[in-house]
Write a structure and sequence with these properties.
It is an enzyme of class 1 (oxidoreductase). The chain is of the alpha+beta class. The protein contains seven helices and five strands; from the N terminus they run αββαβββααααα. The model has no long low-confidence stretch (mean pLDDT 89). The structure holds FE2/S2 (inorganic) cluster (FES) (2 copies). Residues 138-144, 190-192, 194 line the site of one FE2/S2 (inorganic) cluster.
Length: 210
């Protein structure tokens, strides 16, 4: 049978052992170097922008919009909402319009990208740019690069026979009407409300009387 003294020694031993273990744990933790934050993953990507081959190494989370604006300094393409809701960031990829804020740059390896700078320049405007000037298709101009890229692609879509929600008969080629244009341009928001002049500009390029 254990004496009260044996019991006391035993309890003290446990307590001392516990304290020593805790101290060792703390001192080991102190000695550890703080964890280094994980480096963002990067990837090389190469695509053609307005006829020039561009090679970039990007954080894989970089959107095509940010690659164009921040890395290639092509600031004609605008950032409005950055959420796919306004169309200000519209560019063409292999001839088709996309919202560049919704697409990762590294997904475009080998693609052919056209921005507003690639459509025309002040001394040689694209017909759609000239029509926007002629018809006052803008006020502040913030949405305009996206509107023009979209408008060029819209006429190509109609020409290719691609139907829209406004196309009444899917068995015939869609016609260029105000309804078709308004429906197809509905993803491009203009806070200045230049919509009717934009439609006039597009009709003008299409050779259709509004
Ligand atoms: S910035 Fe891309 S849709 Fe608004
Ligand atoms: S011209 Fe100002 S937002 Fe369209």
């Amino acid at each position: 049978m254990k004496s009260p003294v044996d019991t006391e020694i035993s309890r003290r031993g446990i307590l001392v052992g516990g304290v020593a273990t805790a101290a060792l744990t703390v001192s080991t933790a102190d000695a550890q170097t703080p964890p280094t934050p994980a480096q963002p993953a990067t990837m090389k990507v190469s695509f053609d922008v307005n006829g020039k081959r561009r090679n970039l190494e990007l954080d894989t989370r970089t959107t095509l919009l940010d690659a164009l604006r921040e890395h290639l300094h092509l600031t004609g393409t605008k950032k409005g909402c950055d959420h796919g809701q306004c169309g200000a960031c519209t560019v063409m990829v292999d001839g088709q319009r996309i919202n560049s804020c919704l697409s990762l740059a590294v997904m475009h390896q080998g693609d052919r990208i056209t921005t507003i700078e690639g459509l025309g320049q002040p001394d040689r405007l694209h017909p759609m740019q000239a029509a926007f000037v002629k018809h006052d298709g803008y006020q502040c101009g913030y949405c305009t690069p996206g509107q023009i890229c979209s408008a060029v692609a819209v006429l190509d879509e109609i020409k290719a026979g691609i139907p829209s929600h406004a196309t009444g008969d899917f068995t015939t080629r869609p016609a260029i009407t105000n309804e078709e244009i308004r429906e197809r341009m509905s993803g491009n928001i203009c806070r200045c409300g230049a919509y009717s002049n934009i439609v006039d500009a597009i009709n003008d390029v299409a050779g259709v009387r509004a």
